[in-house]
Amino acid sequence: MEQNHNQNNKKEDIDINIPQIPLWTVNYLAEFLTMNKQTIRNFIRDGKISIVKVGKSVRIPRDEVVRMVGKLITRKNNN
Question: What's the predicted TM-score (pTM) here?
């Protein structure tokens, strides 16, 4: 139970530190994560990031950004 509480606190900490932008562009997300734009596009293509289509444009919902950042932090901490 304590571990679950710690995991919730970590998610809240991550959530607080991410800008309150509802829909992110590929470029903005790549810049925020200091990743290459093509890496973000590959994640989208591979189904690792959920998107919303706005006309012909692709946007990433903020909740998806929070989820992805959490996974990246978890992966980094496990290595």
Answer: 0.75
Place of tokens 């959530």: 15
- pLDDT per position as a tens digit, 33-43: 999 999 999 99
Task: Give me the numbers of helices (H) and strands (E) for the chain, helices first please.
Answer: 4, 3
Which pLDDT belongs to residue 52?
Answer: 96
Can you tell me the distance from the alpha carbon of 44 to that of 64, in angstroms, rounded to the nearest whole number? Answer: 11
Q: What is the token pair recorded at 72? A: 């990246």
51 contacts: CB under 8 Å, gap ≥ 6: 44, 58, 59, 60, 61, 64
- State residue 58 phi and psi, 5-degree precision: -110, 135
Residues 6 or more apart whose Cβ sits within 8 Å of residue 24: 32, 59, 60, 61, 62, 65
